[in-house]
Amino acid sequence: MGIPGRSILSARPPALDIQNHMEYVLLLPGQGSQKVGMGKDLFEAFPAARNVFHAVDDAVGASISTLAFDGPSDDLTRTLNAQPALLAHSAAVWAVVQSAIGPSVRAAAGHSLGEFSAYHVAGALDVAGAARIVRRRGTLMYEQGVARPGAMAAILGVLSASIDDICVQASAERGLVVPANYNSDEQVVISGEVAGVERAMELAKEAGAKRCLPLPVSGAFHSPLMEPAVAGLRDALQAEAWKDPRVPVVANVNAAPITSAGVAGELLVQQLTAPVQWTRVSRLLVQQHPEATFVEIGSGAVLTGLLRRLAPSVKTLACGTVAEVEKLLVLAGESA
């Protein structure tokens, strides 16, 4: 039966386009997800993506796009190059899909370097400003790694002792080591002085770790060894124009939803020496947005993989290639 005064064809169910509209949470990958060729097909297919890569190149005064597209891999993997390259890839994807899914994005989060990309997609930083910050961040982290060499390692498996206690014991016995990334219940990355990391790996194996993998990094990231880089990062953050993010960005340091530019900047400084609380970030996002589609914007599918292990029922989508972008655009069109 139609609504009086309106034809059946013009009648619409109450709030249909709101309640049934798909919602999205954006995940932004961090260092380690880079690979030669990343973003090249987007650059060739979409003018909006081309504009982003050109803007990043101009902002940092180097051809980050050439490194991303053609390598060599050793140069792309260097911290000061990998960070702006990953940001550029994520920003390029976002430039293509923003008009289709932007109004339906409810939150964002990024892993380490990806947190800076998250603030860009949330509208807090333009791409040039974000690129300058992460280029400076990568340079500072590399320089501090040279000045005070360190190491990182991934600890995989369920341990009979807590990784926190293992790091305390290893620090007392050999050298400073701390948890750096709480990636999942079965994956933690540790960081610190070389001898401390090696001892913590030994203790983790004794506690039942399945594997302990040294990581190919240039320093002890997310540890107190990065403290001398803090002032430079703060200066870089303060040099750019910030806005409050349009959607909450869940912070690495405390797994809290951030909606203030001032708070964001301070937490990004703290992130340099504090552990990435990714397990807590993921749990909060799933709890707050259980029906959302979680879209990894940029290179690879590490974060959506971690999320599916934590919450197998969540909907996820990796979006870093032309084919994946087109899949997302079709999905967004069908849900509109």
Your description of this structure?
50% of the residues lie in helices and 15% in strands. It is α/β, with parallel strands linked by helices. The chain has two domains: 21-146 and 224-335, 3-Layer(aba) Sandwich (Malonyl-Coenzyme A Acyl Carrier Protein, domain 2), CATH 3.40.366.10; 150-214, Alpha-Beta Plaits (2-Layer Sandwich). Strand 4 (177-184) and strand 5 form a beta hairpin. The chain starts with 15 loop residues before the first helix and ends with a helix. Mean pLDDT is 93; it is low at 1-20.
Q: What is the element layout, followed by pairings?
A:
Blueprint: H1 16-19, E1 24-28, H2 40-45, H3 47-60, H4 64-70, H5 73-77, H6 79-101, E2 105-110, H7 113-121, H8 127-147, E3 151-156, H9 163-173, E4 177-184, E5 187-192, H10 194-206, E6 211-214, H11 230-238, E7 249-250, E8 257-258, H12 261-271, H13 278-288, E9 293-297, H14 302-310, E10 315-319, H15 322-335
Parallel strand pairs: 1-2, 1-9, 9-10
Antiparallel strand pairs: 3-5, 3-6, 4-5, 7-8
Helix pairs in contact: 3-6, 3-8, 4-6, 6-7, 6-8, 6-15, 7-8, 8-11, 9-10, 11-12
